[in-house]
From TrEMBL:
<comment type="similarity">
    <text>Belongs to the TRAFAC class TrmE-Era-EngA-EngB-Septin-like GTPase superfamily. TrmE GTPase family.</text>
</comment>
<keyword id="KW-0963">Cytoplasm</keyword>
<feature type="binding site">
    <location>
        <position position="125"/>
    </location>
    <ligand>
        <name>(6S)-5-formyl-5,6,7,8-tetrahydrofolate</name>
    </ligand>
</feature>
<dbReference type="InterPro" id="IPR005225">
    <property type="entry name" value="Small_GTP-bd"/>
</dbReference>
<feature type="coiled-coil region">
    <location>
        <begin position="184"/>
        <end position="211"/>
    </location>
</feature>
<dbReference type="InterPro" id="IPR027266">
    <property type="entry name" value="TrmE/GcvT-like"/>
</dbReference>
<dbReference type="InterPro" id="IPR027368">
    <property type="entry name" value="MnmE_dom2"/>
</dbReference>
<feature type="binding site">
    <location>
        <position position="255"/>
    </location>
    <ligand>
        <name>K(+)</name>
    </ligand>
</feature>
<keyword id="KW-0479">Metal-binding</keyword>
<dbReference type="InterPro" id="IPR018948">
    <property type="entry name" value="GTP-bd_TrmE_N"/>
</dbReference>
<dbReference type="GO" id="GO:0046872">
    <property type="term" value="F:metal ion binding"/>
</dbReference>
<dbReference type="Pfam" id="PF10396">
    <property type="entry name" value="TrmE_N"/>
</dbReference>
<dbReference type="InterPro" id="IPR031168">
    <property type="entry name" value="G_TrmE"/>
</dbReference>
<dbReference type="GO" id="GO:0030488">
    <property type="term" value="P:tRNA methylation"/>
</dbReference>
<keyword id="KW-0460">Magnesium</keyword>
<feature type="binding site">
    <location>
        <position position="459"/>
    </location>
    <ligand>
        <name>(6S)-5-formyl-5,6,7,8-tetrahydrofolate</name>
    </ligand>
</feature>
<dbReference type="GO" id="GO:0042802">
    <property type="term" value="F:identical protein binding"/>
</dbReference>
Length: 459
């Protein structure tokens, strides 16, 4: 693909800040910059070493627009692998906007979302899994999520996919020789060898696929709801958990005022406590939402934390919520263990496993660590040992692996039946294609557009 237009966008987040950055990429970058920039030294940008900051003014004719630092990164040694100019101006809304407008008046087009990164991909500087890792780095909610994304950006997944595809290619080469020269006296690959290779590949794909559940949680957060009837200690618990571990609070754009996601960092796991009406703001909203609403909210949750008051006997309301926990990842907290105990634990065990029940005192801050351990073991089930492990965090990659896995199963069954080589070849070609979805090798243009439209403008 040949890219011949030049694009520009504001790269920094909108709002007041120390500096704002405008980025230009493409053939005309340098000439546009020379046109609108006057260095204090009087020299042209091209007379400086590339990748150095040059001090001067952005001018529109004789009029100074802003005082800036400009960097020229000559392709291919730049983010997009094209000629890139970055202008560091004063932060805020107006400087960046004026400079961008000036640039756009010089036959430069406003970049689409993610277009800089898309160009880095199209120009072959990074593969698709690395491009996708960039957005994950930006959106990471915990150190661990960040590290996993960073590894992917450095090429951990790319290398693995390359390696797997190489193995597929080897098998394909053998098969092709066997197909082309079947009449002649060439050494043929045996069905036994084929099966060994296929099974080896299957194991590797499966292993990778199995990291996806934890990986998704690492990236998107574990959607968690806290349920229980009034006064059992939900707010106290939440405060206990939030106190030390609050990660990030985000307002979801486009929704009405009340929806807030609290990201709590539990042992590197971003717990997305979905708070449909803002526990933080109105104190006791969970009880206002009521039992009906609780049931609704935990239908969409990855984890339900149910709180019970252990100083009281179970009520019908408690039992009703318990009865709805089936098939959910659940932790039941018996709160207020500092008081005299009246709750009937054996009744609770009719609804949930014993090891999902944890005794705590939110008031005395007892048992909170156990909650953390429990969540950790539920999420990771030992599948992620540390952040340097390769983890599939992206559902698109997961889908591609699943398809590759299905094709390898087809291949194995064809091999077991001693079907002709060209049948088996079809399956291996499919594996090769599906794995290529992950690094972008076999992805179509319209899918690319969808992927990059999730990026920010200027990235
Ligand atoms: P919510 O209505 O479920 O959110 O419950 P709150 O967190 O508002 O707590 C209700 C009452 O129980 C408050 O007076 C808390 O101080 C008290 N409480 C919460 N946790 C404990 C606990 O572990 N022990 C004792 N003794 N009281 C608690
Ligand atoms: Zn409350």
């Amino acid at each position: 693909m040949f890219i011949d237009d030049t694009i520009a966008a504001i790269a920094t987040a909108p709002g007041e800040g120390g500096i704002g950055i405008i980025r230009i990429s493409g053939e005309r970058s340098l000439s546009v910059a020379e046109e609108i920039f006057r260095s204090m030294s009087g020299k042209l940008i091209k007379d400086y070493k590339t990748r150095t900051l040059v001090y001067g003014n952005i001018v529109d004719g004789d009029k100074v627009i802003d005082e800036v630092l400009v960097a020229y990164m000559k392709g291919p040694n730049s983010y997009t692998a094209e000629d890139v100019i970055e202008i560091n101006c004063h932060g805020g809304f107006i400087s960046v906007k004026k400079i961008l407008e000036l640039i756009l008046s010089k036959d430069v087009r406003l970049a689409e979302q993610g277009e800089f990164t898309k160009r880095a991909f199209l120009n072959g500087r990074i593969d698709l899994s690395q491009a996708e890792a960039i957005i994950d780095v930006i959106k990471a909610k915990t150190d661990m999520a960040h590290e996993v994304a960073q590894n992917q950006l450095e090429g951990s997944l790319s290398n693995k996919i390359k390696d797997l595809r190489m193995k597929v290619t080897e098998v394909l080469a053998h098969l092709e020789v066997a197909i082309d020269f079947s009449e002649e006296d060439v050494e043929e690959i045996t069905y036994q060898t084929l099966e060994e290779k296929a099974r080896e590949l299957k194991n590797e794909i499966k292993k990778l696929y199995d990291t996806a559940e934890s990986g998704k949680i690492l990236r998107d957060g574990l959607k968690t709801v806290i349920v229980g009837k009034p006064n059992v200690g939900k707010s106290s618990l939440l405060n206990s958990i939030l106190g030390e571990n609050r990660a990030i609070v985000t307002d979801i754009p486009g929704t009405t005022r009340d929806v807030i996601e609290e990201f709590v960092n539990i042992k590197g796991i971003p717990l997305k406590i979905v708070d449909t009406a803002g526990i933080r703001e109105t104190e006791d909203v969970v009880e206002k939402i009521g039992v009906e609403k609780s049931k609704e909210s935990f239908n969409s949750a990855d984890l339900v934390i149910m709180v019970l008051d252990s100083s009281r006997q179970l009520s019908d309301e408690d039992l009703e919520i318990l009865a709805n926990l089936e098939n959910k990842k659940t932790i039941v907290l018996l709160n207020k263990t500092d008081l005299e105990q009246k709750i009937e634990e054996d009744k609770i065990r009719q609804y949930v496993d014993n090891d999902s029940i944890i005794r705590i005192s939110a008031l005395k801050h007892e048992g909170i660590e156990e909650i953390h351990d429990k969540i950790e073991s539920m999420v990771y089930k030992g599948s992620i040992k540390n952040t340097s492990s390769l983890v599939i965090t992206n559902s698109r990659h997961k889908d591609a692996l699943l398809r590759a896995y299905e094709s390898i199963n087809d291949a194995i069954s064809a091999i077991e039946q001693n079907l002709p080589y060209d049948f088996i070849e079809v399956d291996f070609k499919n594996i090769w294609d599906y794995l290529g979805y992950i690094n972008g090798d076999t992805v179509k243009e319209d899918l690319l557009d969808t992927i990059f439209s999730n990026f920010c403008i200027g990235k």
